[in-house]
Design a protein that fits this description.
By secondary structure, this protein is low in regular secondary structure. It has a two-stranded antiparallel sheet with strand order 1-2. The protein starts with 14 loop residues before the first helix and ends in a 14-residue tail after the last strand. InterPro entries: NA-bd_OB-fold.
């Protein structure tokens, strides 16, 4: 499967992009592997985000740097590039693969 297992976040999306992306997402199924996880609002803060888990079936292109913390999380937010609804996760190599 082409999905990676490290949670990540992007920079804030502009309204038009977030509206388009929202229409391509599906809510997570019961027992999603990230259920119960907390996500920080930004690096170095204890403030947590309220999140809506989704089914990982949308492929997107992002720009990321390679810095990770001791838990394996990316230290910096990914920068959104574009959605790729023409691809399925099975058609994409795993991150780092």
């Amino acid at each position: 499967m082409g999905a990676f297992s490290t949670p990540a976040r992007t920079i804030t999306l502009v309204r038009a992009t977030s509206s388009t992306v929202a229409g391509l997402l599906a809510p997570a199924w019961p027992g999603h592997p990230w259920t119960g996880w907390s996500f920080s609002a930004r690096w170095g803060t204890r403030e947590t985000l309220t999140v809506s888990l989704i089914e990982p079936r949308l492929v997107v292109e992002v720009d990321v740097d390679v810095a990770r913390d001791s838990a394996g999380r990316w230290r910096h937010a990914a920068r959104w590039h574009r959605a790729r609804p023409d691809l399925s996760p099975a058609e994409v190599f795993p991150f780092g693969g």
